[in-house]
Protein 1
Amino acid sequence: MTAVTKNIPSGSNLNAAQYFRYPEEIRDDFVKTDDIEFRDGSRVSAAEVWDYLTKVGPVKFPNLYDNSNLFTGRLSHDVTLPFTLKHNYLLMTMHERMTKARAQGHPIVFVQGGQSVDPYYAAGAVALRPASTGIWARRQKEGLTRTEDELEGQRDKQKAYNAISFEVCNSAGYEHIQEGNVPADMVAPYTALRCSDVSYGTEAHRHGPRKDQVKLLLVDYPLDHQKDKEWAIDYFASSLRRLTRAIDEHTGRTTTEEDLAREIKLHNEGRRLAVEIADLWWSAENPPTNGKDRRDLFQLGGMEVHGDPVASLSILREAKTHIEKRVAEHHKTQGVQDKAARLFVCGSCVFPNDFRCEEAGGIIVGNDNHWSDITTIVEESGEPYYELAKAVLSYPYEQPLKDRAAWTVEQIRKSRTDGVLFLYKWGCNTQSAIARLLVDEIKARTGKHTIIIEDDMTRTQTEQLQNRVNAFIEMVSY
Ligand code: SF4
């Protein structure tokens, strides 16, 4: 199935040839697929999703329908995978959905990526990491071309450099809160080592313009062989209790252990589904999706990107049946070359352009960052705060180097990776410091080709990054 390029917003002076449209011939099959269910009990049918993506989306967000492969955020052309359409629908409706959730009494809490969000939802909040905060902020601006949208993003990041520090990697999530672009009620990330932006951002918030309106709470995360120390688990469990109590002060309700146990069960289903989908995907003769859809699918196991775990879970459940079918039928995915070089990405928050990698003969098959928390299943039978604390302190990404490397090597083997890239942002202090050590350890244990590349968050170096990645794909392919 190929994409067609037509349907530009009416009255626009945009060039029709550069815009993507979902082809009409897939409509009948798509509208027979499952509804999306939401946390508040409401549902949206596939027919409503279709109408949104073909009529509302192109007018509101022409930048997302820009068809250029130079744009990492362009829509996937794999239109026969219903997951991709529903995932895009959820991303496009972020502003309306989050505004509704807050009006229904769910406080918005800013967190960081790579952490479980079970306790936030158990207490009735919505937990959003910087990427989701950015999606919400950018969905408030309608009718922008891709260039206009990119400029908006640049402006946000420059403001954040001024407000926080020029030394940060700068995901701009905090800036949206300081500016009031998204109405957050609390800043409450785990203080895990993986992300140095947590320290810069929380410190900036402590004296920032919205410090009095937006409560700050640190979920203190002990370090250094933390998973093996009973006191550390007890301490982190008490931090989680403090977190739910602080959210309770907003909502006026009391979060019980049963609430947390129920939420853990729900999130465990998402984590298990993502792992099962990964096992299917990695074992397939041909990659059953392109790299972008793979990443979206695997990451959905964290159930936090859409700000509604029930909605994320509903599309993840349906996606698994489609992936099983594709694997059984030896499906070949449009845009992925035969015998593509399989790449594994280590490090936080940087991804090469999947479409460009596939043009160059590669495909990204996995990454360690967010996958670390998704693969950590929480024990459901014990006291929920203690079990959640024990799981969170055992995230492989947060462990001493040898342990982190051993887990990463296991993922590399399972995904049948040919080459390993460690990518980090300028200003990502922990990951930049650990890159050389981790990559040397991986190389010693697997003998795979490896490369380390630094990128910046300003998007001015995308060609520099891709140029090096493509050269690496060429090297791995021979
Ligand atoms: S790039 Fe590093 S410092 Fe920046 S948000 Fe990601 S993990 Fe945090």
Note: Residues 422 and 452 are 5 Å apart (CA to CA).
Protein 2
Amino acid sequence: MTNKIFCLKVPKQHGERVRSALIKLKIFDQSHKIAHQDQFLLIPLVERPSPAVLAELKIPFEIVEAEVEPTVPAKERKPRNLTEALEDKLTPFELAIIPVSYDIVGDIAIIEIPEGLMHAQNLIAKAVFDVHPQIRVVAKKVGAVGGEFRVREAQVIAGETRTTTIHKEYGCRFKVDINKVYFSPRLATEHKRVASQVRPGETIVDMFAGIGPFSILIAKSMPIEKIYAIDKNPVAVEFLKENIKLNKVEGKVIPFLGDTKKIIETKLKNQADRVIMNLPHTAFEFLDSAISALKPVGGIIHYYEIGSEEQHDIFERAIERITSSAKKAGREIEILHKRIVRPYAPYEYQIAVDALLNSYIDINTK
Ligand SMILES: C[S@@+](CC[C@H](N)C(=O)[O-])C[C@H]1O[C@@H](n2cnc3c(N)ncnc32)[C@H](O)[C@@H]1O
């Protein structure tokens, strides 16, 4: 759609100077776009200016009537966030409690709807679609992440009725059912950080592999020997197998279904250069097992825990636990790196500690 309005036709090289001058003179029409015509610009005007005003421009010009496109009205622009999308639909109190962040897994948005906004969940879902045109499903969180498989239920509230999607992360594609397996897009940076430390030829044990975000990214980024990816959740292992094929890392990532302690004990002792232990609430219970998976010459453990702000040093307990298990196994230990991975709950954080465990200490020389 175009509108026929008065424009100032000026040579292109004077365009910016004239536009600024017209803004100062308050006759630049911001509701229409500047048009191009050969070597000239057609600058839209709010009215036909008087000769006195035009004299101030001091450049060659012509007044013409031309068809120009209107700029997009603010109302039709895509909202940048939920607050913008809902500002004329919710009360100020309601706007103050709408969630500021939510997870996007593939084309599914997973949002926590506060108790006081349940009545507005359809409006909120519509706002999510307006902010993210690529989203096809909006689901609301129901309950907390829990159980041995670390799964949280989500209920679809708008869009297509499905909970399965394909999530892309650093060039990998992960098929996932948000209701049946653990997966968090908030761990993407941590997956990448660990993957970037791996060296060619390594053997790795991913003790709590889920659908494979650590294992598959590593296998795709580096010519490793093998990654043994273990999980106890049968559905997660089915997705893991599908994702291995989807990302063409068959033969490099070896999936195992079962309890990680038993699988290491029976099949993977003394094999690994690196072990990943992403089960933050209870990883400490598996430290002896992780250490037994390392090669006798030593290796690196990526250990995760939930740390609280109330602790004097948020990393202290994790380091103590790794040190004590290493000592029990007769290994020396060096902490290579520690970091806060992400906020987990009020005053709580998921933390990561990378530890290098050296070869067995010769107790006769110590
Ligand atoms: C926090 S999730 C991590 C998944 C994955 N590493 C990631 O980054 O998305 C922990 C996983 O450990 C699995 N799990 C829990 N206990 C286990 C055990 N004893 N043996 C093997 N897997 C276990 C759960 O089923 C879950 O998939």
Note: The pocket of S-adenosylmethionine is lined by residues 148-150, 182-183, 187, 208-210, 213-214, 230-233, 236, 259-260, 278-279 (CB under 6 Å).
Protein 3
Amino acid sequence: MSKPILIVGGGPAGLAAAHAAASVGHSSVLVEKTAILGGAPIQSGYAKLVPSGQWAKDAIGGMVSRVESNPKVEKKLNTVVKSFDGTPGNFVAELSDGTRAEVGSAILTTGFTHFDSVNKPEWGFGLFPDVVTTTQVEQMISSGKGVRCPSDNRKPKRVAILLCVGSRDRQIGREWCSKICCTVSANLAMEIREELPETHVYIYYMDIRTYGLYESDYYWKSQEEFKVKYIKARIAEVTSDGKQLIVKGEDTLVKRPITIPFDMVVHAIGMDPNVDNMTLSAVFGVDLHRHGYIERKDTYGVMGATSRAGVFVAGAAIGPETIDDSIAQANAAALNAIAAAAGNSTLQAAE
Ligand SMILES: Cc1cc2nc3c(=O)[nH]c(=O)nc-3n(C[C@H](O)[C@H](O)[C@H](O)COP(=O)(O)OP(=O)(O)OC[C@H]3O[C@@H](n4cnc5c(N)ncnc54)[C@H](O)[C@@H]3O)c2cc1C
Ligand code: SF4
């Protein structure tokens, strides 16, 4: 019997990889650096997920439960990997809790870091309490508290959602599109309108990327059924007149300056590379993409292959990714990791 797989990161991708391996009878050691499993959707308290409409605590909570109760998965919380040596079939990992794990292969499912909006100071986050992020609005909804202005707990009458905060922005070194935030924002806008039907919700965008089937279920539905207004604009700054927030910029369709008051401004934050990636790269000997994500070396042949044989990657560790695609990648990586643990030498990245 080949050795267990080391899975690093207990978010949706890591949970899926552990479950997939266990389903075919293969053991794994799941190492998670925080005290809880579930990754960003649980740690950040997401509300209803797109596209399923399920609450994150139910959907991802279910993935956590089935791994927690699975004897084929050894769980190591509050733990990181300190060193990783060997070759496919025979690796040794030293863990921060002082234990040593003999494993046949590894999957990095270490995910992403939310963009910190203080890096976009001209848009008011950190200066005005009613400038918040999509994750904060998700938490307001998932906690049952409802959408309220943090400054005085009032129900906002006018909400602006600004897209592409920390994405598609070369000035701050973030060229990538974070892929899911247009759809997440359209979904949040509908949830705000559902809870507060009197509230006007505006989405300010460069381009709308509700790709694939999301176009009808989020972009058009939010406008036609929920009366969310979309404005193509270049936002210059978010200030305050002492009573309300003021969004200033240019409406790029009619080419006119805009100065519009709001009670709440929401930053649709993007998905940065995990802040641990330099360390992970050094410990596991894997290359990073030029933007700082973990680089996958093969797109079609060996899903999830990295620059090091026997070490695979899946989910948002590779780049901005949705939950369902992270899960699909994790299932593919689990299959390849099982084969590598058994010493299958054909599972090298294509050069
Ligand atoms: C505001 C917002 C809303 C979103 N809503 C949706 C949605 O509705 N639907 C959807 O499909 N997607 C959504 N996403 C994207 C979703 O968050 C990701 O697709 C998903 O979290 C990726 O899962 P993952 O397991 O790859 O990574 P993560 O969820 O980031 O999990 C990574 C795990 O690894 C752990 N970890 C990190 N570094 C280490 C280390 N060095 N050692 C050990 N453990 C480590 C972390 O603690 C974490 O538990 C949203 C994203 C944002 C920003
Ligand atoms: S998905 Fe939309 S909001 Fe997110 S970075 Fe891409 S274009 Fe911007």
Note: The CA atoms of residues 281 and 287 lie 6 Å apart.
